[in-house]
Write a structure and sequence with these properties.
- This protein has about 350 residues and is of the alpha/beta class.
- Helix content is about 45%, strand content about 10%.
- It has 10 helices and 9 strands.
- It has a 5-stranded parallel beta sheet with strand order 2-1-3-6-7, with helices on both faces.
- The longest helix is centred in the N-terminal third of the chain and has 26 residues.
- The N and C termini lie far apart (about 125 Å).
- InterPro entries: DUF459, SGNH_hydro_sf.
- Keywords: Membrane, Transmembrane, Transmembrane helix.
Length: about 350
């Protein structure tokens, strides 16, 4: 009888390498994040739109809004935004679109347009039949307090005015990217205008706004006014009147509303023309308000052009790549004419 060799005891069962397990967990984590972001994109598409509208102009903003806006339209159509609306109501927030309960939209619905009558705001200006307070005589020791504000159109214009202003003008600038008068649910300019008056105490408010407003207006009852329509233009005018009256304070302060420059896009340019009509007419109904048409200097015979005559008489690239905003040289052109108007009104040197 031969003696059998003892066989080696069985080893522990084979296990997957730790690295493989780690890869699986990472993939699961990425999948979970992707699903979560997808649900947020669908259920909170309006929040994505708001976030995108608040970004600086550029590729990121374009990409975010390119995805968020169509998603928002789809979720509204199939009512996938109802959970978000329910949660908003549960926490005491209004979830209706269009800024139903915003100060701007509510005040605009009650705004009564005053009759157009010539004002006393200088050559080429239109104003209310009531006269604003007469301009004082600013000095270097007590300069004119100016606030340049609005949407991204003021990003380069505001600093250009500040840097070019004489010692008799002390200018501040406040840019609110992605804002306008069409979407007070995103940013309510009426409420913010009151805060600006309290915090900054300007004597003159220079406004450049409207670059984001080429979109429909949703009223409190859910009615959507198509961009460019007569009803849309009339509602925009009412909203412009509201914010102008807040800044003006019944003539205690002056408001200088700047025209939108021509846009490269024909469709957007059509919207801008209607917005310019609305704000021009609004200035005729607000004490102390004035409209400054910059088209003669920011266009070629009224048409869009990338290249214009600069402040030194040479041809300069005056517009940004997007065909909406001004380049730094374009902002300098506009700033020169804005300051010329201010100097004339206050008899400054």
């Amino acid at each position: 009888m031969t003696e059998r060799e003892d066989s080696a005891p069985p080893g522990p069962p084979a296990t997957a390498p730790a690295a493989t397990t780690g890869v699986v967990r990472v993939r699961q984590a990425f999948l979970l994040v992707a699903v979560t972001l997808g649900l947020l994109a669908v259920l909170r598409a309006s929040a994505m739109v708001h976030a995108g509208e608040g970004m600086r102009p550029g590729l990121t903003r374009t990409l975010v809004l390119g995805v968020a806006r169509p998603t928002e339209r789809i979720t509204r159509t199939v009512h996938l935004d109802e959970p978000d609306r329910w949660l908003s109501r549960a926490f005491g927030h209004d979830a209706k679109s269009g800024g139903t309960f915003s100060e701007l939209a509510s005040a605009a619905s009650r705004a009564e347009a005053e009759p157009d009558r010539p004002g006393a705001l200088g050559p080429g200006a239109a104003g209310s039949h009531r006269s604003p307070l007469p301009p004082r005589h600013p000095t270097a020791a007590d300069p004119l307090r100016v606030l340049v504000t609005g949407d991204s159109l003021t990003e380069s214009l505001g600093p250009s005015i500040m840097n070019s202003a004489p010692a008799t003008i002390r200018a501040q600038t406040e840019t609110r990217f992605g804002t306008g008068l069409v979407r007070p649910d995103f940013f309510d300019w009426a409420t913010h205008a009151r805060a600006q008056i309290t915090q900054r105490n300007p004597e003159l408010v220079i406004v450049a706004m409207g670059g984001n407003d080429g979109q429909g207006i949703t009223l409190a009852d859910g009615t959507v006014l198509p961009a460019g329509s007569d009803a849309w233009t009339a509602e925009y005018q009412r909203r412009a009147i509201v914010v102008m009256r807040i800044w003006s304070g019944d003539g205690a302060r002056r408001v200088l509303w700047l025209s939108l420059p021509p846009a490269r896009s024909d469709q957007l340019n059509g919207y801008f023309r209607r917005l310019n009509e609305a704000t021009l007419d609004a200035t005729t109904r607000v004490v102390g308000a004035r409209y400054l048409d910059l088209t003669p200097w920011l266009s070629k015979n009224g048409a869009y052009s990338d290249y214009l005559t600069g402040t030194d008489g040479n041809t300069v690239l005056a517009r940004a790549r997007d065909g909406v905003h001004l380049s730094l040289d374009g902002a300098r052109i506009a700033a020169g004419h804005v300051l010329e108007t201010v100097r004339s009104t206050w008899n400054l040197r």
